[in-house]
Structure formats: C-alpha cells, structure tokens
Amino acid sequence: MDRLEPLDRRLIERFQHGMPLCAEPYRAMAEALGCSEQALLDSLRRLQERDALSRIGPVFEHSRAGASTLVALAVPAERLEQVAARISQYPEVNHNYRREHAYNLWFVLTGPDRASLDRLLAEIETDTSLAPLDLPMEHSYRIDLGFSLENLP
Amino acid sequence: MSACTSRYDGALIRRLMELTQAGLPLVDNPWAWIGEQLGLDEQAVLDLLRQLQNDGAIRRIAAVPNHYRLGYRHNGMTVWDVDDAELPRLGPLLGAQPFVSHCYRRPRRDGWRYNLFAMVHGRSAEEIEAYRAQIRELLGEACRADEMLVSSRILKKTGLRI
Lengths: 153, 162
Description:
The complex is a heterodimer.
Chain A lengths: L5 H10 L9 H9 L3 H13 L3 E8 L6 E7 L6 H10 L3 E7 L5 E7 L2 H15 L4 E3 L3 E4 L11
Antiparallel strand pairs in A: 2-4, 2-5, 3-4
Chain B lengths: L9 H11 L9 H9 L3 H14 L2 E8 L8 E9 L4 H9 L4 E6 L10 E7 L2 H15 L3 E15 L5
Antiparallel strand pairs in B: 2-4, 2-5, 3-4
C-alpha cells in the first residue's frame, strides 16, 4: 500500500492497544498526538477509507459471545473451490482460510451455544460428505493483537 | 436501566456489539451517541464498557489496524504437539512473544496430534519461518512434532457476527 501519512501512523501506533475512555475521546486523542480534533477525525476517515484501520471501538472476546470453534476440512483438490464457496455462505462462518495442508480449509464457526455448533457441524458433514475436525479453544494464552509498525513502507 | 444490572443483560450487550461492530461514529462524543441508542446516559455507557473490559468480555477498546493492508501479508498457523504437563509453563511463554497474535490450547483428535496453536504474522515467508524456529527453540524437548500451515488465500473474513 502507499505510505501512511505520519499522523496516521502515529495514531495507529499510539492507540492500537487502547483509546481514552473519556467524554470526548477524539479530542483527547488529538491532544495526545498534538493535532487538532479535526485533523484527528480526518486521519481516522483516511485510515478507514484506505482500509488500513478495520475500525475503532470495542473488540469483543469471541468466546464470550456464545460458542465458537475452529473447524478444518480435508477437501480433495478438485472440490476445493466449490466446498470453500459453500462454507463461506454460512452466516455462522466468520473466517475462512485456505491453508497448505491435507486439512486445507480452516474456518471459525460461531453460534449461541455448543448445541448449535454441533448441529452446524452435522449439517456441514452432510452437505460436503467430509468429516469436520472440531477444535474448540480450551485455553487462551494471548488475546492481544498489536504489531510494531517500524520499517513499514 | 442502571449500569450495575447490565452485567447479566445479554440483550443490552448484544445491542452494544451491533452498534459498535462497524466502528464508533466519528462524532464529538461517541459514548453519548451509543447511550442514546441504548437508553443510557454517557456515564453509564462508560461504566458498562469498563466493566465488560474488566470482566474480559471486551479485549480492548482501540483503533484496530488491518494488518494485511499494513504489509503483514504472511501468516502462519503454527501447531505443536506439546507434553500436556508442560502447557501451563509453555503456553504463556509462547503467548508473550511479540510476533504471536493468538495462542490457544485445543484438543487432540484422531489424526490430529497438535494441542498448542500459535498464530504468527510477518512481512515475508522468511520472517514467519524464523518465528517458527524461535518457537521451536522455546519449546525445546517438550515438543514432539510441529507444522506450520500458511494461508494461501483468505476466502472470507468478517468481524464478529452475532
């Protein structure tokens, strides 16, 4: 992607782990970065338009919003396109990645409770004639997502 | 409705998730805007957010970068067959590495021996290979086998759905 403007980069670096929880957060962020609130809002808009920022706001813990599990399918190469498209159609699927492995399709399944996941897994198995590998999270050792932006173009 | 009853109010939390999943509005006071939608005052919204964060239901309230767009185009799901007894020590050790974004224990299955998952991100294939080697060193003798599943294509990626 094109170079980030200095303010845009500083905004992400400074606030990717947390933003101020006060009455006028954008003003507080602007003060922290030494710019006007308008410049801060312009920067947020620019970052969102360029898709460099997914969004700003609360990030909810998936496992607390009901049930979820990581699922893998070993799809024969000639069926991969078709099965992948079919899986992506499920509204309960919120990530779907092709990976280089015998288990070549990986996705996250979410639902209100575990019973709903069991029903979906059975439906997927019937639908695709493939046995899904069901790998629910048992423990999380890290839930942060933050990277250094050093050396970025 | 007061914030102190909201801890168990699933409908309110769901509304809050719906209202914020596309991002906070770019208005002077986004918390007051959320409050208007939820029938809460601004202070109650801030209290609710802090409470959810303290409870772990909210990971963080932040500017969420799109790592792919920022140049982190390579991700590898590293999977490890680690001695169960060593997981309480090694899980947090892996999770603390700056290049690991997610680190989970998951069950073993027939035909699937790996119980520890660590997602690594980098700007090149070499970079994520180097991270895998670093993890292997950290795990040492406790690790019996490992693989790295690189993503060849993102087919669908959406935020949390409710």
